[in-house]
Amino acid sequence: MTQTSRSTSESGSGAAVVGRGTQPGPKASKVRRRLRAWGPGLLLVSPSLVLLGIFVYGFLGWNIRVSFTSWRGQTPVYDWVGTRNYSELFDNERFQIDVRNLAVFTFVFIGGSLLLGFVMAMLLEKGVRFEAFFRSVFLFPMAISFIATAIIWRWLLNNGSGESTAGLNKLFDNIGLGFLFSDWHKTPSSWAIAAIALPAGWALSGYVMALFLAGLRSVPEELREAARVDGAPERKVFWHVVRPMLLPVLMSAVVILAHISMKTFDLFYAIDQGNLRIDTPALYMWFTTFQPGFFARGATIATLLLFGIALVIVPYIWWSVRTERRK
Amino acid sequence: MKTLVRTGRYLALLVLVCFFLMPVYALLITALKDPASVSVVRMWELPQSFSMENFRIVWPDLREGFVNSALLAVPASLVSAMLGAANGFVLSKWRFPGADFVFPLILFGMFIPYQAILIPMYRTMQSANLVGGLDGLIIVHIIYGLPITTLIFRSYFAGLSDEVIEAAKVDGAGMLRTFFHVALPIAPPAFAVALIWQFTSAWNDFLFGVLLTSREFWPITVALNNIAGGQTVPFNQAMASALLASVPTLLVYVLLGRFFMRGLMAGALKG
């Protein structure tokens, strides 16, 4: 920093007068002092920042770049074809089916998991005996890989009939619920993918329960008590006191489930590989990229997935960070 | 009326427990049946006699995957947790200008669909000669684990009072000294949460494993899918394999469920 600029920027302040001379001015030493204060911290996190910068943002950008090329096969091609891959993808029949499948799955999976998780949280909220046991049972599927989950459920979602009835259908038969018979994900209906919401919900509704339970228990008892003193029945206490405080929890749960439903790959892959009725963009990306080598198309699908997820995640992160700062 | 409500509540809980344990029941009894008496149509019937034969049949095919997953999940979780501890400490207690801007950017890395980095990551690993073995996979797990471990430690250290940090500074301790002597000694609970989360996700990962490793380095999930994922695999072997592959994470869950739960809360940004 030059002498003139410093004196203009600090004109009027007494410090500038003191700082004139051969020694570094107070501003420079202040900068150095501050640098000494936070420099080591920045240095300590910089390897992580660089790695994440490359592996997250660099790669995301690179992938977007690939979506504008005609790269096909093992040798990368970095030409520029504009938005051709995108328009081709939107006209692609398999992709259209995938998007529809994903919408059906997301709807059933989120709806089912929210309902189940909420009911479980409400049942446990008031305090029941063996609560820890119930909680562990509802949550343990979170500890199991989607591959193992899929391998168990592919046998439960068996659509054999007559003599070869097995899995859930057999169980329904045994306990007199034969009307629940289903072909599950093998039905020709375009709702086949909804069957996968069953294992997915089995795996994740315990998570929703945990979120709701934490939310319910963070409502101060005094607030409820005050409403009760005013003569509000339990139903109204819930609606006017508890429900508004659960909205943030509901939002978290929806965001978490929505992003999982968009990116999940292994559960579908291991339940019934190659069944197009349970195909989603995440699977199509894998199959088109790493088998026939349509890298550009795979990158295009991945870019669309990224934007779909960013649409829900970015506002969520922004909101979480802002809430934290207000505390 | 009150007892009616209470009975109803327990009844509903019982039905739910049945729903959650029903697959486990099928898994367990099938895996423990004598292979000769296994039949899909009789999957709900209790076994006539118990046998460990199924485990004996599938173990040789799973053993390698088991070892690989252990060799991969342990270092991946340790390194990721260490780096996360340093990041979390700096971002909460030794902030630099822009720390509040950088943190959400780090967090975003936790939610990205991995499909959107798969092609560049694969190319990079290929040119670094890190495809095929476990090294590349470990590196990838470390890096993509950083957002969550950073988040866990940042929330944890946020609870550390600023006076303690100031006191250390007054005593002339630099950042590293403060980190090692003030922050780390109180951090074991956060390490438990971060390590468990990372171990579980590395153990259960499939996408990175199937892309980055060749057959002899397959992690357990890839080996499991290969053994038990086909249509022709006997039902009993599929169940026994799925059970074996899940034992380590289930064990962690049963023994350290409290920390597992806290990791889940952190994963939803609810520190």
Short synopsis of the structure:
The complex is a heterodimer of chains A (327) and B (271). With 327 residues, chain A is mainly alpha-helical.
Tell me what you see in this structure.
The complex is a heterodimer of chains A (327) and B (271). With 327 residues, chain A is mainly alpha-helical. Chain A has helices at 3-9, 14-19, 26-66, 84-91, 93-125, 131-139, 146-156, 167-174, 197-217, 221-229, 234-263, 266-271, 281-290, 295-326. In chain A, helix 3 (26-66) runs antiparallel to helix 14 (295-326), helix 9 (197-217) packs across helix 11 and helix 10 packs antiparallel against helix 11. The radius of gyration of chain A is 28 Å and the shape is flat. Residues 1-22 of chain A have low confidence and may be disordered. With 271 residues, chain B is an all-alpha fold. Chain B folds into two domains: 1-51, no CATH class; 59-267, MetI-like (MetI-like fold, Orthogonal Bundle). In chain B, helix 10 packs antiparallel against helix 11. The two termini of chain B are 39 Å apart. The interface between A and B is large, with 99 and 91 residues.
Count up the helices of chain A: 14
For the biggest sheet of chain B, the summary is: none
Ends apart, CA distance between termini of chain A:
39 Å
What is the count of DSSP helices of chain B, taking H or I runs of 4+ residues?
Answer: 11
Q: CATH superfamily assignment of the largest domain in chain A?
A: MetI-like
Oligomeric form: heterodimer
Rg of chain B: 23 Å
Q: Could you name the CATH class of the largest domain in chain B?
A: Mainly Alpha
Helix content of chain A: over 70%
- Based on secondary structure, the structural category of chain A is mainly alpha
Q: Structural class, judged by helices and strands of chain B?
A: mainly alpha
CATH architecture of the largest domain in chain A: Orthogonal Bundle
Which shape of chain A, going by the Cα principal axes?
Answer: flat
Secondary-structure element pattern of chain B, one letter each: HHHHHHHHHHH
Bin the helical content of chain B: over 70%
The tally of strands of chain B reads 0
Would you tell me the overall average pLDDT of chain A?
88
Dominant shape of chain B: globular
